[in-house]
Structure formats: C-alpha cells, structure tokens
Amino acid sequence: MADAAKKLPRIEINEKFCKGCSICVDFCPTDVLEMKGPVVVVKDLDACTRCQLCDLRCPDFAIQVFD
Amino acid sequence: MADAAKKLPRIEINEKFCKGCSICVDFCPTDVLEMKGPVVVVKDLDACTRCQLCDLRCPDFAIQVFD
Amino acid sequence: MAKVKRFMQGNEACAEGALYAGCNFFAGYPITPSTEIAEILGYQLPKIGGKWIQMEDEIASIAATIGGSLGGCKALTATSGPGLSLKQEGLGYAAMAEIPCVIINVMRGGPSTGYPTGPSQSDMMTAKWGTHGDHPVIALTPSTVPEILTETVRAFNLAEKYRMPVFVFYDEIVGHMREPVEIPEPGDLEIVDRAKPTCKPEDYKPYDSNFEIAPLAAYGKDGYRFHVTGLNHGDDGFPTNDSKRIDQGCRSIMAKIENNLDDILKNETVDMDDAEIVLFAYGSTARSASFAQRKAREKGIKAGLFRPLTMWPFPEKAIREAAKKAKVFIVPEMNLGQMSLEVERCAPGIEVKGINRVDGEPINPAQILECIEKYK
Amino acid sequence: MAKVKRFMQGNEACAEGALYAGCNFFAGYPITPSTEIAEILGYQLPKIGGKWIQMEDEIASIAATIGGSLGGCKALTATSGPGLSLKQEGLGYAAMAEIPCVIINVMRGGPSTGYPTGPSQSDMMTAKWGTHGDHPVIALTPSTVPEILTETVRAFNLAEKYRMPVFVFYDEIVGHMREPVEIPEPGDLEIVDRAKPTCKPEDYKPYDSNFEIAPLAAYGKDGYRFHVTGLNHGDDGFPTNDSKRIDQGCRSIMAKIENNLDDILKNETVDMDDAEIVLFAYGSTARSASFAQRKAREKGIKAGLFRPLTMWPFPEKAIREAAKKAKVFIVPEMNLGQMSLEVERCAPGIEVKGINRVDGEPINPAQILECIEKYK
Amino acid sequence: MTAEAAKKQKLSVPFDYSKYLRGGKLPHIWCPGCGHGIILKALLRAIDKIGLTNDEICMVSGIGCSSRTPGYVDFNTMHTLHGRALSYATGIKMANPDLNLIVTTGDGDALAIGGNHFIHTCRRNIDMTILVYSNSIYGMTGGQFSPTTPEGSKTSTSPYGAMEPNFDCCELAKASGATFVARATSYHVAELERTIKAAIEHKGTSVVEILDQCPIYFGRQNKYKSASHMMEMIEKDGTVSVKQVDKLPPEKLEGKLLRGILHQVEGEEYCDKYAKIIEKAQD
Amino acid sequence: MTAEAAKKQKLSVPFDYSKYLRGGKLPHIWCPGCGHGIILKALLRAIDKIGLTNDEICMVSGIGCSSRTPGYVDFNTMHTLHGRALSYATGIKMANPDLNLIVTTGDGDALAIGGNHFIHTCRRNIDMTILVYSNSIYGMTGGQFSPTTPEGSKTSTSPYGAMEPNFDCCELAKASGATFVARATSYHVAELERTIKAAIEHKGTSVVEILDQCPIYFGRQNKYKSASHMMEMIEKDGTVSVKQVDKLPPEKLEGKLLRGILHQVEGEEYCDKYAKIIEKAQD
Amino acid sequence: MADRYELRFSGSGGQGMILAGIIMAEAASIYGDKNAVQSQSYGPESRGGASKAEVVISDDAIDYPKATAIDCMLAMTQEACTKYHDDIKDDGILLVDTELVHELPKGKFKIYEFPIIETAREELGKVIVANIISLGLMTALTKIVSEKAITDAVLSRVPKPFLELNEKALKIGFERAKELKEKK
Amino acid sequence: MADRYELRFSGSGGQGMILAGIIMAEAASIYGDKNAVQSQSYGPESRGGASKAEVVISDDAIDYPKATAIDCMLAMTQEACTKYHDDIKDDGILLVDTELVHELPKGKFKIYEFPIIETAREELGKVIVANIISLGLMTALTKIVSEKAITDAVLSRVPKPFLELNEKALKIGFERAKELKEKK
Ligand SMILES: Cc1ncc(C[n+]2csc(CCOP(=O)(O)OP(=O)(O)O)c2C)c(N)n1
Ligand SMILES: Cc1ncc(C[n+]2csc(CCOP(=O)(O)OP(=O)(O)O)c2C)c(N)n1
Ligand code: SF4
Ligand code: SF4
Ligand code: SF4
Ligand code: SF4
Ligand code: SF4
Ligand code: SF4
Ligand SMILES: [Mg+2]
Ligand SMILES: [Mg+2]
Known about the structure:
Chain C is α/β, with parallel strands linked by helices.
C-alpha cells in the first residue's frame, strides 16, 4: 500500500483516567507515545502498528487504539 | 544352650494401667500373651523371645519385658 | 389429631427448629457442647436438598454461612465459647453488611478452653460486645428443649426480617438435656421469609435508605446484581467517605432494633404483679429460679420471676417498670455477674443481688430459695 | 540538664514507651492505623537484641506474643479493630493462663472493616467483653502523645505485676497526631519486672494459691519446668475437674484486679470539687472535653472533667462519689454510647447524656460546650 | 468511528470494557503504574471470550488493593474480610452452584492471613477461579513484606532486608489439591488473558498466581525506577514460559519462575459430589 | 530383678520411661487401643537416644486427644488453643532459641483449624519438630471427619460417607518449605522412634506425619474390629517404606502411602537468620 | 406420687447408662402420660470415668432438671456408687450390681443387690443388655412407669433382630425385682 | 498571640504537605519555645485525593488538636482549596499556588497568590522543594515561628547534600512573602 493511501489509526487517550505511569510509552514497540507532563500524548502516530499493546498494558483504561 | 538352662524372661504387666486393648496379644510374634477379661496375662512365657514388641506397641505403659 | 411428641435433646430441638424455619444451609466446625447440631443437620439437610459443609475452622464457618445467605439460603452456624470468639470478626461483617444468619452458641465453662463439658452462662456479654465497633445484636435465651425449637424458629424469622445475625444462646445443661417435644406441624408456627426486591434490576439498591430495612436480593438468583462490603457504604453498597452517609449507616443498623423493640422483645413473667423480690433468670438457671419462686410463694413470699427470652436487646423498659415495685432483684447466673450489670443499670437505686456459680455445677433451686428468704 | 524533647507521633511514642519498659518481644500483623508501631519496633528491636516477628495473621500474633512471654520476654502486640476481634480467643487464653503481655489497639471506625482511616472509640466494650467467659481486663486510655508513652510503660508494669494481658486503647487521632515529648531517662519512670520464683524447682507451682499472684518462671531459662493450659487448672497448672478448684481459679483471676484497684486505677480530674456538670471523657475526645470544660468555667458554669486513664477496671467508686454532687454526666464518645452505659450504671438516678459521633469526624469542643450550656 | 461502527466494518477494534464495568466508578483507586488494573482488564477480556454474562459471574474478594477489584465490575460482587474471601465464596457457590465464582485476592490476603482457606479450598476442589495478584507486598497498608517478598528486599517491616523464605504459591496450590494451577504476569498480557480464560473454563479449583507490580511501595523501597522497570525486571526477565523450559540451557532457568499452566488434572468437583450426597440421602 | 539391677548385669533391659514422665499422671486419658500412647513412648525413647535433658525440651500442643501429650511429660510444656500450637511455639523459640521445641498435634489441630500456622511455620523453617498424630478423625470431639479422613469413611459428620479429598500432609509440608518431612506409623514402632530421632536432630522445621488409630471413633464407625485390626489394615498394609519403593511392582504401590524420610534438605534456620539481622542492626 | 420423682443411672462410660435414662424418661413421657426430663453429666474428656444420667418424672411441668433428692439410683460400678450415692433420699432405693459394687454405702435408703451384668452374660449371653435388665428392675422396684410403657419404650429403640433379646432382658428384670422385694 | 494559632497545609498526596506541617510544628515546639500539635487526615485509601495537615501552636498546653478556626492556610491544589478553606477566620490568611489554584474562594480572609511550584521548578530546579518554599512564605506571613526556628527545623530533617538547596528555598519564601505583603 502506498504511503499516501495509508489510513492512520486513531489513538484515544482518556486524560481523566490516565495516571501518567508511562507503561504504554515504555513498552510501545514503535515509540509512538511520549509523556507530556502528567499524561501521555501521541508523538508519532505514523509509526503505530495497531498492536494494541498500549491498551492491553494500560492499568487505567486510559488508552485505546482504533483502526 | 540346653532347654533346662534357659533363663526365662520376666514380663511385668501393670494391671492398673492396662486398658485391655489386646494390641500386645495380637502382635506378639510367638503368642506369649492372652486376654483374660479386661486385662492381659502371660499364657506361654516359654515362647517369649524378648523382642519387646509388646512393650513398644503398648499404648499404656502397661507391659515390660525383663531379661 | 394429637401432635407427634418426641423425646429429644436440646441440640436436637435446635436442629429441628432450624429445619422447621426453612434452614437450608449450614456451615460449622465441631466443638463441645454444640457438635450435635452439626451432626444432626449433616444427616438431615441432604435429605431435603439443603447444603451442609464442615469448614476448616470457625472463621471459615461464619464466612461460608454469610456467603450461603447471600446465595439466597437461610443459613445457620453453631458453636461454643472458643468458636464464638473466633467468629467475632465475621459476625461484625454480617451486622455491617446486613446479612441474615443465625448463630447458635451453646455455653460451656470459660474463659479460654476452660471447662468444655461444664455448663456456663458466661458468654452473654460477648454476645453483645464481642466484635469491635458498634453493632446491633439480637440474642435469644431459651430455657427448655421445646423452647429451643421455637426460639430457633424465631431467630430465623428475626434474622430474615431485620437482615442481621441473630444469636440463640443456651447453656450446656439445656443443650444436652432431653424433654418431650411436640413437633409443630407446618403452619403451626409463623415463618418469615426474606423480603425480595420488586424494583427493576437497574434501580436496585441493597441498602436503599428509603426502606427501614431494604429488601435483599440473592446472588445469581433473581437477576439483581449488587455489591456488598464491610466498609461503610452508601445506599448502593459501595464504599463511601461521606461523613453524613457513614453516620446514617452506623445509626440505621442500630435503629432497626430500637424501632422494633415490641416485635423483638419477648419475656415470660410469673407472679410479677406484686413482686417485691424479682428473680431475673434465663437458660437452665431460670428453671431453678422457677422452682425456687414457686416454693417462695408457697411460703407466702412475694417473689416473682422475670425470664427474658430475648436477652439482647435488653428488656430495659420492662426492668425499669419492675424496678418501681421491687425491693430487690436476684440474678442467678452461671458466671461472675454479667446480666446483673444490665439489671443494675436499668434498676437505679434498687439492690441487685447476683447468685453466681462458675464451678461447672448448676445453680440449684435451694441456693436461690435461700437467697430469697434473706430478703423476705 | 534538660531532657531530650522530640516531636513524635502517637504510635511512635507507643514504641518508645515499650522500649523504655523493657519490651524485647514483638509479634504482629499490619493493620491501619496501628502499623507504625510494628514498623518502628521492627527497626528498633533488633538494635537492642530484642525479638521481632511479623506473623501470618493476628491470631498467630497474639499466640506468638504469649509464647514469647512464656519464654521470658516482655512481649507486645499491636492491632486495630478487626485484628482485635481476631485476637479474642488468644486474649482469653492469656487471661486464663495468666501470661503477661501488652496489647495496643488503635481504634478506627467499625464495625467490620468499617472506616479504616477514620478515628473511633467504638472498641471500648470489646476490650472488656470481647472474649467468651469471665476474664479480668485492664485497659488504659491515654489522651496525648506523651501519655501514650507513659501509659505504655504502665501497661507493661501492670501486665508483669498482675500476670495478665493489659490493653492500651487509643483512637486514630491520638495515634497519628504529633506532639513534643520529653524522653524520659532511665530511672525517671518506674519499671516493674516479673516476679521470679525462688523455691526449689521441684516445689514450683505456676498457680500456687498461696500467693495472690504466683511468680512465673520462664521456659528453659531458670531451671523450672512447668505446665500451662487454657483449661481450668490446679495450683500445678494441670487440668482439674475439681469444682472447688475450678471456682477458685475463676475467681482468683478476677480478684487480682478487685483487690488492687488502688494500684491499677488512674484518673485525672479537673475542677471536680464543685462540679455539677461532669464531663466523662477519654482519648482524643477528652482533649475536646478539656477545651470545652475550660470555656464553660470561663462562663461561670460549674463544669468538671473526669478523665480515666484506666478505663477497665471501671472507676466505679470515683463515679459513684462524683454522682453525689453531679446533676448530669456528659459523656462524649466517638461511638454510639459505650462507656456512658457504665457511667449510667454507677450513677443511679443521675442523668447521663451521651454525645456520640460515628461519622469519622472528631467530636469538637463546640459540640460539647453547646451541650454543657443546655444543662447549666 | 465508534467501536460499534468499527465492528460493523469488520475492522479490528479495541475491546469494549464498558459492558462489564460499573458506571461512574472509574478512575479506580489504584496508584499510577499499579499492575492490578492490567489484571482486571485481562480478566474482562477473558470473560468476554468465554461468553459469560454479567449475571453468571460472582466475584468475591478479601481486603487489600487487589481486593478492590469487585467494586469496579458489574457482576454479583462481594468485598469481604481480610483473608476470608474463599470461605465466603465457598458458601455462595454451595448455595448456588450455577454461579461462576471468581476470587480476586492479594498475596497477603490469599497466602498470609488467608492461607488456611486457600489450602482447604484447593483441597476441596470446589469450582472457582482464584486470581492471586502477587506483588510481593502488602500494598493497602503501606508496604510491609508478605509471604512472597523476595529475601533481601526492603519493606517497611524489613528495614534490614526481608529474611523469610517465600511460598511458591503454585506449589502450595498443587500440593493442597487444586486441579488447575498456573502462573502469569501483568507484563505478558495476552498470555495472562489466555491463562485466566483457561482457569475459568476449568471445572474445579483453579489458581492463577499473577506476578504484578506495586511501584509505590515495593518499587520505591527497592529502587525500581518505574512500573515499567519492575515489569521488565521481575515479570519479563524473572520468568520463563513452561513452553520454553525444554529449549533453554539450565543457566537461563536459574532463579526464574515458570509461567503458564503448571498443573492441570481432572478431579471430581465439590458441588457435583455434594449433589450425589443429596441423591444418596434422598434414596 | 529391677531395671537398675538388670542394667548392672549388662543384660538388655526395657526402656525406663519414668525419667521423662510426670509423676502421678498415668494412666493417661486415652482410650483403650488409642495410638497416641504408642507415639508418646517412641518419642521418649528417641529423646533418650539423642540424650536431651528434660530442661532442654519444650513441648507445645493445641487441643485434641493428641494435644494432651504434653501433660504427661516432665519437660517445659504448654497446652494451648485448638490449632495454634505452632504460633505459641514460634514465640517461645524466638524468645529462647536454645530450647528444643517439639509440637504434638492432631490431624485436625494441625491441618484443619491450624493449617495456616502449619504452612507458615514450614515456610519459615524455624527449628522445631512437628509430630502430627494422624488418626483421620477429630477424636476429642467425638469423631467428626478431618482433612485426612479417607473418602467414603463414615464419621459422625459424614453419615453418607466422607466426600472431601484429603490433604497429603507430607506434600503440603514440603511445598510449604519444611526442610525435613517424614511419615511413620504407630505400627512400625522402631522405625517411628528412628524417624522422630532424625526429625529432632534435623535443624529447621521437621514434620513427621504419624498414622495412628482412633479405635473408638474412627474404628467403630468404619467397622474395624479392634485397634490391632486398624494397625494391620491402615498402617501395616496401607503403607510402604520408601526404601522398598524401587523394589516393588507398581500394583503393590497403588493406594499406599510412603513411610520414611520423604524429604530432607538444608536450609538456613529462622532463628539463626534472625541473629544475623540483630548483628546487622547493631553494626 | 410427689411432685417430682427422681432417678439416677450411674456406671462407667460404655455401660449404656445414658441410654437407660433416656428410655426410662421416654417410657414416662412418650409411652406414659407423665412429664419427664433427662439430663446427664459429661466427664471432662467424655470418655472413661464415672458417668451418670438423671431422670426427673412428674405429673406437672418440670423446671429444675437435675436431681435434688434421689428416689431411686442404680450403680453399676463401685466408683459411680461411691461418688453419686450422696443425695439418695432416706426412703429412697439404691440398686447395685453385685459383681462390680462390693462396698455398700451407708444410708437410710433401701439397698438391693443384683448380679445384673452376670445375668446378662450368663443368661442372655450379651453383656450389652445389662442396662435393659436394669430398666426392668428399676421399673418393677419403683413402679414409676408401667411395665407396658417401659417395654414400648425399649422396643421402639431396638432393631428388629434384637427385639426378643431385649424383651427377655426386661422380663428378667421385672421378675427378679419382685423376688428381691419379697426377700426384703 | 491568642491562646491558639492554627495553620493548615493542604494539597494532594505527594506534595509534602504533611511533612511541611510537621516541620512547622517542630519549629514552634522543638526549635522555638511554644507548644505545638500536628495532625493530619488520611484519605480512605491513604493515596491520591486531597490531603491536609494541621498545626496548632500555643504558648499553653493544647487540648483540641484539630483546627477550629484557621489563622493561616496553604492550598497547593484547587481541590484542596475548595474543600478545606471553609473554616479560615475572617482575619485569617489563605496562601495559594498560582499555577494550580485558579478559582479563589470567597471570604473575608486575606488571600496571597504565589507561584510556589513554578518557583521551585524554575529557580531551584526541583519541584520537590515547593513545600519548603511554602514554609518560608508561611513563616514570614504569619511570624508565628521565627525564621531561625524554621530554618533549624528544616535543616535538621534534610540530608547533607541538600542543605543548601533547602536553605535557599526557605530564603526565597521569606523574601517573597515580604514582597507579597508589601503589595497588599
Ligand atoms: C483482620 C485484618 N488484618 C489486617 C488488615 C489490614 N490489611 C488490609 S489489606 C492488608 C494487606 C493487603 O495485602 P495484599 O493482600 O497483598 O493486597 P495488595 O494491597 O498488595 O494488593 C492488610 C494487612 C485488615 N484489614 N484486616
Ligand atoms: C476453637 C476451637 N474449635 C473447636 C474446638 C473443639 N475441638 C477440640 S479438639 C478438636 C479436634 C481434635 O482433632 P485432632 O486434632 O485430630 O486430635 P485428636 O483428638 O484426633 O487426637 C476440636 C474440633 C476447640 N477446642 N476450639
Ligand atoms: S497500538 Fe502498539 S504501536 Fe500503536 S501506540 Fe499502541 S503500543 Fe504503540
Ligand atoms: S499506560 Fe495508561 S495510565 Fe499509564 S501513561 Fe499510558 S495511558 Fe496513562
Ligand atoms: S517380648 Fe516379644 S515375644 Fe515376648 S511377649 Fe513381648 S512381644 Fe511376645
Ligand atoms: S497393649 Fe498394653 S494396654 Fe493393651 S492389652 Fe496389652 S498391656 Fe494392656
Ligand atoms: S499501593 Fe501498590 S498495590 Fe496498592 S494500588 Fe498502589 S501500587 Fe497498587
Ligand atoms: S477418642 Fe480416639 S483419639 Fe481420642 S483418646 Fe480415644 S481413641 Fe484416642
Ligand atoms: Mg500484595
Ligand atoms: Mg485426629
């Protein structure tokens, strides 16, 4: 698939729930996320493989990745 | 050793302690003992091998065998 | 048709009463002198499809009993002194979470392991104050074998009605003696079943403060899902830090009792109308007291007998009333003076004389009569 | 030279007091709000060669504590509400077998798990009646951080002297607040050590009824061998069925207390000489009461404060005395009315007004003052 | 795109936890980085895979951070006394054998104060799933050592380093009679979900010891930099899957805990047996 | 000839139990044929072989028929609460590590109500010898089933036959961390004595499960003709020595329990470890 | 009959004294038209040692369940006899087993001696029915329950194969009691 | 000084409010010549949420340890400010962190705003000393303890490598408080 056609995933972060533990950041295989102050933000959406590991490991129901 | 010279063991039974469970009787390898009413008595001292099993298995400190 | 009459032991009558009341769950751990209750129910409950389990200890027993109750059963456990001490934390849980269950305590000599086969009445205050924190208590004190049956039935009724643990306390003498008992037929005695919620599942609140006593659903049986905790909780059963709700919760579990004393209290009185010497007695001791009271009246002494069948809540009003005419309360107990303290509190200014035995022997009528004569 | 002054927490002062008293054994299980005591002693005891162990639960903790005591140590355990309920059987054992030990209970909201971080005074009656059977109880109720230190020392002294478990009960507020404390130097406070037998080993009887309190040997330390049981026992410590000896045993463990009230009781009184309105208060609540009492006197109201430092045995005589002049007793408690029942019993005919809070908040001085003013 | 819409389009969608969660209870009380939340989520996914409805489940817990789990899920739930969850659960299960009992408990709750109920429940082989949130500490009370705290660790009650040997929770469960025994971690999330699923599906007593992290008390006192650091060191590097055991040289196994289903046998279930007693009695 | 005289003549003499017995306490309360007396006697002989003096021993028990043992022996003795003996013993041992702690307990006392203290004591590996008088019943309270009652047995609380699976006491001890685990019987008296001796000599927590008989409650309800009959069937025919295991065909092992020392490893003892903590703290 | 009639069955554990007491009480209250209360004392270990069962019979309600003044007591062992005879009334009855009770207590009450155990062993071949013989004896000596009532009570508790044996035992008791009485 | 002076330190768990309270109380009672009592409220889970520490200072003995009418309160978060400001006296003081508290409560008390956290971060490079800055501010605003006493109290609790940092933090507090006061 050409880069241009690539549909980016949508990463939903619930800032009210996120406690800033950085687990999702630390274990994202492609370094998509980063901490910004007390919460997580998306740094490089392009790199996201939709592996869902961030969701699976987030203890706080605070991050989910949609196609 | 000739039979005549054979020194018999002495079996001491404490009638106050004996509760008549018959364990000593049942397990004596040479059938030396028997129950008489509620307590044990010696039936055949001659057969005693001094194995001490009656003492070892008596729960009540009620029988001992001396050389 | 004449009722079936059976000659039975106190503990047997207890099991019989439990079955009559609809008990279908028992969890316990053997201990003298209450074990027969477990043994009989272990034989009888499977016959009616009821659940019976011997747990690893008394703590597990009260826990399983409460669990069984939340599973929708009428649940019972039975024990004696040391077991009662061990159940204390669980009893507080049942009181706090408002879970119906019945606890039998057959009293033996204490403290500690004490005198396992000797009779005693020395757990009466433990019934009331055993677990930490303020909590409501109902404790019934039958004196005869037939009464053990009927009071066990009443204990289940009160437990289910008021959503709380209810005790039946009797001493080893009543527990192990035998008397003829007329077996009640279905319908003879009132049976109270737990109120069930009727609201929509999503509206259900297990501690709904719109009710005096909110209906209790059963786990997995009626389509209601709910949360139960031993922490202070709100109407919905979830923990709360709201000081108002905490206060309300703590008080409402007590108010259930205070507002329904007429329904809960039960006393038997003999010749109390003009009694100057009031015998306050319960359990097997009340039998001796009754004997002595009769003899005293025969001698023309104005003695009366006050016999509480509900010991907790304490029959405070009735005692205050009796105190108006009485010149002395005599309180025979197989302990060093427990209920006599309550009598003292509620009969201000009146002498309260305890007759106390803790030697493993019953208090006999002669002892009581002698005391009565001193006051005549 | 001025004494060292340290700013410390109530629970810290408790550990400090224990060490001062010579405590060299601790067994416990963590529970809020008492855990700091275990934590501090876990750090301090090894430094002085003392023994410290975290057991698997509270039941094991009280058992190990009693074991440690019989091994010759001055032994301590600390807990809060739910743990207190679990320790009940073991506490009865210590009372029955007459083994010295000290139990700290830092009170939190109950019943059950209740309100773990909220203050409360709702275990007071459990202190007295928690375990089954008649048993002696000494319970001390400090109100300040320095007092926690000194009362913990006194608890050890009483435990060793009277061969029994002694409680120190205080609420979460006093347990967790901090105040400056002057650290006593060796010799400043009296320290009582356990009386040791002096007889020949073969003559030794651990419950020798020739003594009011027989000396207690230690296992394996002094060449005395003896037997201990929680059953009713004779002078030699072996189980007995002799009803006379059973009676004597049950009564003598109580008599130790009754015959030594002067030594055991301790109260602080403020302006009681002419007090018509008597505040009966303990723990942190006594601090509020003290504040209110001062303000009341400023307003010319004849209010006095009676503050028991020994709550059990109950200061019955002093209350009866105070009742002669008082027109009302005001009893503020963070519970639904516990010690007020005892006051009521001992002040017959006098009004007893409870101020009760169970919402996790302290009783403040204004609340008490308001109540005083109603009676002035 | 909503999850609903995504589903319709047959795209892979994240799991919708909400059907199992009680409204308004989140965020939960667990500290930042606490592993307990990870376990809860895996459990919900496992339940979904099995297809259990909310009504069919009863979740019971004792006291501790881990024991707060039932408060968040929309099942029949009960938060009981410290250590006693299994006894309450036993009563519920006996009363109502159709319920799927899941007990969420901590290493302290299950193995310290609750040890007796743990071994007896395993012995009876009553059908329930016991999830032990094993973080090597008493989290709720502020970080005292537990029966699974590694020797040498600093905790608030082991200032000189913990000296007590540990339980092997899985060995204990097996020796006690549990018919399903497994170990998982909050790091290996997919495996965790599968293991919990297998545990619930097993008939009889199932025990899953789940290594997870308490960054606040265990982590800080033992110089772990973060929750992830703990997951990395303790859960990832500290364990080996049973599936790999045969393939690894001994030196790679040293000091490692095994992950996966460690023991599974058939054994008649307690309530089934009791049903037979009823039959016999009614004969 | 008195025992004294016999000794002088160097003839073999029966064992003189009296030096370890308290005067005037016999006959003991145990029923006719009860195995508990046999165990007590073997224990005294073992103590004698080791050469311990009366002062060096502290014997602790819980509640039960078995737990009445300490009342008969002239040591430092303590009869405590049902199930709690090991916790009392732990306190005594910590306070006075020089004492040899021997705990006599029943299957109910040790494994039912006392299960938690049992596994934790084993875990800590504190130096004491735990003798479990395992008669498959609660004797003292009149014959209810215990966690070691064989399935199908009649007891006063299993009128339809016991349905609960049993603990294997030895497996449980081992899984909990005990460093010495053995099984013996009151039938194999010489072996019993040797096993107890080895258990006492072992440093750390030693557990000996001793199969013995309660002819009154277990025996009568299960149609055993006598105490000897029980010893024959349960203890002799129901067990196999570990030493013979390799020599026997599998069919001869089926349903049999192993006798002998089943597990013995070295492990640092609890009080020794604690002594090191003291050193560290005082540094 | 006075307002209460008190019986005591004493012996050692295993002699069936408690069962005897229960049956006597059932005879009075279930198979007769009186009231009855039975109680017993457990030893501290509930095994071994002397044991006793007490039965109070009355036409009215019975409050105090324990013996106050014994009308009739059975002693099957010396220990029981010595320990428990104290509160037999002056005009009461003491029945003892001749084989095991040798030292008779002093008192104003009437003493009957009978080889109960021996009779059970020799005449019926079963020591175990000694307590039933004693029930027959006590019934006939006291007449506090009817022979029919005690027979009904005994038989209702006995498994079929043993009905005859027990009936025989009772009868022996009835008859020998009459002989005993006559002898006095 | 009235018979009691009451301070409250409030914020969220982890901001060191309880420690600040303790240090203030130590300054008064150990390094000064007054009496002081410190108490705190634990949340039900002792983690997360608003937390507060209270200090009562007096020349006399202090009985009631909790706040009755606050003389001076610090609020480091909005939640704490909203939840706890109620019982500040009319002539009392409220000090808030400008960064985290945006909605100021209404009341007759004096309000001082200061970017405490920002100052800690920007000027000292360590957010963790925000509470020490606040101690400096409170000391200078209230004068309830001397600058020397609070300095001694702070320094006695700080490990050597951090002495200077903390001293600096305190000084910043002292100075800026004076500026704040002048501004008013
Ligand atoms: C009877 C009793 N004892 C002690 C406590 C205090 N307490 C509450 S939770 C807990 C330990 C929890 O540890 P764990 O089970 O490992 O759960 P975690 O918090 O680590 O998830 C303790 C000791 C209590 N609530 N009740
Ligand atoms: C807390 C408590 N629960 C129950 C009892 C009653 N009880 C005494 S001994 C016993 C069982 C004893 O069985 P076991 O330990 O196997 O000893 P055995 O008598 O068989 O030798 C029980 C249940 C008790 N004394 N204390
Ligand atoms: S889905 Fe995977 S790749 Fe994408 S952000 Fe999450 S962890 Fe990273
Ligand atoms: S794992 Fe969850 S809580 Fe942690 S930083 Fe990421 S989104 Fe926030
Ligand atoms: S010593 Fe041996 S042979 Fe002799 S009687 Fe005893 S058991 Fe029999
Ligand atoms: S074994 Fe002992 S008690 Fe049993 S019959 Fe023989 S001597 Fe008597
Ligand atoms: S204290 Fe530990 S276990 Fe508890 S919630 Fe926080 S991180 Fe989790
Ligand atoms: S009841 Fe059983 S265990 Fe107890 S003494 Fe008798 S035979 Fe032994
Ligand atoms: Mg944990
Ligand atoms: Mg047993």
